[in-house]
Amino acid sequence: MKKFVVGMTALCASTVSFAQIATSAPEAQAASLKIYGVADISLAQYKTSGVSKTAMHSGGSGSRIGFLGSEDLGLGWMVNARLESGVNLDTGTLSSTNGNSNRLFSRQAYIELKNNELGAVRFGRQEGPSYNFFPTYDPMLLPAMDAWGVLTTLGNPAPGKASGNGTSTGFMINPTARTENTIGYISPRLVGVQANLSYSLNEGVATQPSLLEAGLDYVAGPLQVGVLYVKAGSTPGAGAILATDSNSEIAIGAKYQAGPIQPYFSYIRRESTDPTRGAGGRVLNGNAETVKLFGLVIPVSQRGAVRITYGRYASGMVDSDATNYGMAYTYEVNPRLMLMAAVTRLTQGNAARYPVFVSPQPDAGKPVTAVTTGVTWRF
Description:
The chain has one domain (2-378): Beta Barrel (Porin).
């Protein structure tokens, strides 16, 4: 943590030095504003335990409207600011992110100082190393339907948080992961290697852990390999909410994008299933959880591809493991418009009741299946 703070201090100090000499530099370009968005919708049917449900919701990317402001300051420096609001396209309401729908800019809200040689530092709510790990090593890119999303969230709107009852709530490393009150740093890519760090303050809230995320990514031609470490700090608790011990996760990912078949692999390990401290200060469930994820992308035409994921979840609870299979076909009408159809199936242990996204709650041990079709347009 001290090294992280020192690094951020050094970068900010260099920014101050730049500001002191900027008045003597050539005049910088005027600020610009870009408005962008994603319209993403799908129609899905879920079946489990003799019950079916048809629902309309986001398909993969999540609908949004965003504003990106930029200004070239000269001498290799740039300032950017992003305000990005999630939208439920089926109802027009604000989308819920990390279990909290009371956010106008639920996806991102940050300011960034960037230097061509030193990298970029960000302040605010942002998609950090955990969020960025997901699209890099998930071949299906449809979290509601593929093994990545199904097994890392386990159906929870705020995955990775302590349950307080000894059960699992999913992983901190998941497709919905965003953090607030965050200082982030993204390094330049040197000899194929890029670092991505962030630290999220708890601002003295007794039930909110601080969060450290550190990712390292390596690219060599068609091969890309990444490692990610996430640690949530301990909390003293308040009122009916119990204290928690610190908890950590580590992930390893790899993909090879060449040839007729493009393989993907990810592995995630969570140190404690539930780090809540119970009677005597003991952790309620200190058993580890793991997820192994395999995937393939098989191009079948210039614009069409078959995407397959398989995942195996090893629970920290008795008879609560799970397996998920997912398959999708995506067709890119152009670089901005994508059509998709997908199917997924979750099987689970006799004591488990994990749903798939917004499926009905399954009976213990019962499988869940879902099929969906949708469209995503980026503008």
